[in-house]
Amino acid sequence: MRVRIDEKDFINYPFLKESQNFVSGYAGSPERFLCTSTGKAALAQAKDRILSAIAGKSGQKTNARPALPTDHDGVKVIVSGYALARVIISCMKDRMIIDRFTRSEAQKAYECLLDEEPGKKVFIATSLGIDIGADEVPLVPYVELSAGMREERWRLVNRDIEHGMVKVKKNETDEILRECIRVTISRNLPLPVPAGICEVLASVVKEISEAEQQHLLEQFGSVEEPCFPPCMQALILALSAGTNISHPGRFALTAFLHNIGMNSSDIIGLYCRAPDFDLSRTMYQVEHISGRGGTEYTAPSCAAMRTTGVCVKKDLLCERVSHPLNYYKQKKRKDKRNAPVPSGNMLVDRNAGGAHREDEAGNSKNIRDPRGHHQGEHDQEDNKKNQA
Ligand code: SF4
């Protein structure tokens, strides 16, 4: 049966070749396009797309499904907004934003896919280069796509394979398609955008960077070392004991601390005690990882940490996360939930009893454990709850 792709599909699936052709048919040069009323509206749409991706929860259901425009111009704005968003995040070269954007876009498309007729799903899958049946996927694309899917059920050992086809449940094909969309959207990002275009977009880039910073601060809040995952605690402990840590360990720790909002001078302070400490080299490395060179790095995932041998002392919470940043977020959230209802005057002596830490640069910090416990008590309590 012949499947008809219309303007509604361009909105729902702007990454499709057909949607891109629709945009390139009228947009012309980006500089000229941005001066038109459609271009200005598309820029606002692009900004909204990225901001909602930053604020949303990657890989989880969002409420960000766009209201469908009713006219042809509205479709133009939405589809070119998607293309412009790719250009903007390419100018930003921030891997965390790129990752959030691709996950958010894939999730939006997935939510539309759920209501689609089977023929349309097959059309989209074929257009993305994957031949998905109703309950099976060819082995090679399955292996490639399942590598980015966290749950145990996607592992090949948990699947039946017949004649080179991996058996999947009916509703799982949509999930595989979502991952395929994410990979398709991620492909070629960041794009090689000419510097002149990034200059034209500089004010939007700045606005989004500020929003991201603010979101990070809201999300991670103050830096609370007791909530660090075991791998990061071990790296800090090694540094404090004057031990050299491996290059992957340094990269992971620096990126992690930067991602949770620690400033560069505090991060550099941590490295002072390393036997091979060299201030200018450390400053260069920390600032490079923090984005000075134009690319801001994200801490490696647990899988990558395992490969480089820096995933150590895993605890029960580790079983439920696939990224050290998620560990930190979950632990902070959990600690907040378990914090006793404060009595007395919270404004008086807020730090009394909090862990006091003096870094190697001589900056002292009070790191308040919300439960007023020491780290060992935290873990015992968490473990008991997790076992229960
Ligand atoms: S599982 Fe992840 S969070 Fe836990 S120690 Fe290993 S790398 Fe760190």
Give a description of the structure.
The chain has 388 residues and is mostly helical. It folds into two domains: 7-115 and 184-212, no CATH class; 221-339 and 351-387, no CATH class. It has helices at residues 7-12, 17-24, 30-35, 37-55, 72-92, 95-113, 118-127, 139-146, 172-186, 195-200, 202-220, 230-240, 247-259, 264-271, 279-289, 302-307, 324-338, 375-387, and strands at residues 136-138, 161-162, 165-167, 355-358, 364-367. The strands form two sheets. Strands 1-3-2 form a three-stranded antiparallel sheet. Helix 4 (37-55) packs across helix 6. The protein is globular, with a radius of gyration of 24 Å.
Helical content, roughly?
55-70%
Low-confidence stretches: 57-64, 341-388
Number of domains as seen in the coordinates: 2
* CA-atom Rg in angstroms: 24 Å
Q: Please write the string of helix (H) and strand (E) elements.
A: HHHHHHHEHEEHHHHHHHHHEEH
Termini gap: 54 Å
Based on helices, strands and strand pairing, what is the structural class? mainly alpha
Short structural description:
By secondary structure, the protein is mostly helical.
Which properties best describe this structure?
single chain, 388 residues, mainly alpha, 2 domains, disordered C terminus, binds iron/sulfur cluster
